[in-house]
Give the backbone structure.
Amino acid sequence: MKGEQSSNGKEIMLETYAPQLEILDPHPAGTMFRSEEMVLCQLFVQPEAAYVSMYELGEAGIAQFRDLNPHVNDFQRRYVTEVRRCNEMERKLRWVSGELPEPPPPPKPSPRVLTPREINILEERIDYIESEIQEITRNAQNLKTDYLALIELKLLIEKTQTFFQDHSAHRKISASVQIYNNDGALGHLGFIAGVVATARVPSFERMLWRISHGNIFFKQAQIDEPLKDPVTSHELQKTVFVVFFHGEQIKLRVKKVCNGFQATLYPCPATYKEQQDMLAGIESRIKDLEMVLEQTEQHRRLVLANIARDISTWMVVVRKEKAIYHTLNMFSMDIVKKCLIAECWVPRCDLHILQKALDNGVKASGSPIPSILHHVPTLEIPPTYNRTNKFTRGFQTLIDSYGIASYREVNPALYTIITFPFLFAVMFGDMGHGLIMTVFAAILVIFEKKFAKNKTDNEIWNIFFGGRYIILLMGIFSVYTGLIYNDIFSKSLNIFGSSWQNVYDEQTLRNYSTFELDPKDAYTKTPYPLGIDPAWQFAANNIIFLNSFKMKLSIIFGVLHMAFGVTLSVVNFNFFKKAELIFLQYIPQILFLLLLFWYLCILMFMKWIMYSADATDKALGTSCAPSVLIIFINMMLLKESTAKGSCKPFMYAGQEIIQNIFLAIAFLCIPIMLFGKPVYQIMAAKKQKRSGVEGGAAGEAGAGGAEGAGGEALGEVLITQAIHTIEYVLGAVSHTASYLRLWALSLAHAQLSAVLWQRLLKIGLGGGSPVNAILLYLLFAAWAFFTLAILVLMEGLSAFLHTLRLHWVEFMSKFYEGQGYAFLPFSFSVILEADEVDIKEKPNGGPPE
Amino acid sequence: MSLLLGCGVCCMLLSIWAILQLFVMGIFFKMEVLAFIEEAEPDHHGYEDYDDFMKQTKENYQLIAVNCWVATFIYVITLGLSYMCIKHAKNKERMAADNVQDDETYCRSKAKRL
């Protein structure tokens, strides 16, 4: 089966994963509806052709290779020398880029693959550059050491001039020194001069005192400005010292102590004239050295500038090569046929790219033996791959954070694109804040190319930038819900004219301060066309009314969202050919949910429609409108309702019977959920056993084994099914209530917004003289800051989190399995990005200048 | 350095927002929009009768409108100042970058510092 060559070197087998999937997937490639179909391929490539093929595959990023040598040590793999060579080159390049004064320009895309010969040339060049820069640096350090010595000597002479200025001592000392040239002689003083680190001076002095039994004279003077260490560039505080002593023995001891304390000794002339001559000489030498140092530095910069242009490109080339050899190490070598064997997962739609890469490799290497691509039918679970673009990637990441979808199950990310911003907006509804979010996200999106270029470590910025499309949609939807809630920075807009009117005469208006507007008279019978009527912003019962409205709205959205989630499981059952589960799991689940909670929503709709202030029938008036929640609770507890006053006990005729029927059917669904699937499995196993018995003795042994195993699995299936059923039934109640957070957060948002306006901005709008304008100027800045910090950022984050929770727990628990693993293809862009995160450009060693 | 730039950008964004919002609010106050009645009405006991109330409210509306526009003008000045801040910060950054580029100054300073 393996390696049969046909005339054009290709052989394709039609069998793929999941042999029960006889029909090829009708959906075209690359939709977000479900993850892509993956194929396990086996490649047979010649070693010469392997490099070019892998280069093209790395650019395309379509194949995930499996390690065929998992038990082989890293150091025993085939291409270990090449990897080591690449590591060396990378180290040298990194060192050189550390020497550059500023970050190098970004890499240019290389037009073609580099042949191994060209890579050798590159390696030699990098070697040469590294040694050249190291030599320059070494020379510079030597020069700096000499420079430091000269500076110290100059400072030493300048400081010791004061010591020798005492004229009487001067003659005596100079006389002895002149004759004996610092060699001590009987009766005359000798001296030693040098420079030592300031921190060591006290212990140095003490040691000298001890070893000389107090027979020395120690003078010191600190150098004020710090000197720079030539190697490490650290700053050093140094002190000039002169030790006067008498005798040869003491001189030797003093010299030993000086060595121990790492003090540098300098030949210091004793006479004033000699000192001046020496100083003049030193000055000229210092000037020369400074010039040489400057020229060395310029030369170094020139060399580095020449390299800076190309270094990023070389770095990219070296990293790509290292990645290719790492992957080639995963291939196994077939000794007999002398070719490399690789196994990889590839999406079915990208197979032609894989084939082209192999063909290009063969062509480039000029090998007569073509590479072979071979599909392997397997029962292993392939990785999950969702093809995304820059817009859908954010939403897919949100879903993947909960769990990668199982192979080819329906992908919730597609619907998240709309439901996520919508549920966020229900909690965030304010036109002003929505507008701020939209503008911010629009700036990020319009300038995304510019922002993508600066790679920063700032995680917060990366999170906001990565989610810019999500934020944009959230902002747009928030403007819409702000329009519906009629809320812009806690004020309402009156666009169409309010539908409420004044019904009181002027006398009443003047005498009283609060009024009640009965909708029977004060409502003009044509509703406000879009959103909440602006008259509500002045109502004292504004919150009570909005509570009722938003709570009902939340429950309706919640039941719709959950019903949609349960229905998505049908798509999975259909695709995986488990039609029986539609009847055993989906129907009971959806009936349970709809008969109880969609009935609750229908009651809400009925209450909105049937009861009104200007109803002629008193039983349909406002005082008789029943509490939907009480009706629902009574329904569940099978309680009787009685008529109160002129109100009817039920909303419509036959309500009691219908409610009892719904309750009964819903409760009947529970045992079906509990036992449906296990019973079906038992029956299916029995049918298999029967057909196994008819099939013969061999079948019987197999079927007997299956039944034994089936007995254990049955217990497990029962327990799993019980857990799922309890989770679903209890979840239906608790998740429905959980959607009330849509109401809670929108209430909190509206109230916070109102507080900020009334406590901050309203004070600035006090009127009066134009001097108040300055107060308005300051207060507006404060109000804007708190609006951004509290309402947009804090509330926005909070609403985002709650929406995410609603999706992950309430929506996806109804159908999502999430047991897959991600598809991680061999791709240069991923590897280069990961490397850049680790390697930061910083100077090699030393404190910053 | 980037502190000045950050300050400048923040002030610029705040100024743009303030100019837009305060200008529109000024127009709304001039139009005596009902949504702002609670900002414009006089105190609970600051008026004697209905006509006085109406007169004071209308006056307040006009005064607040003027205040809003004056504040808008101050924010225009702030916008100009912040723009100059940003330009100054960018200039300084460019000069520092140029200094590093220039071989003579860079090498001399590096050599001088031992």
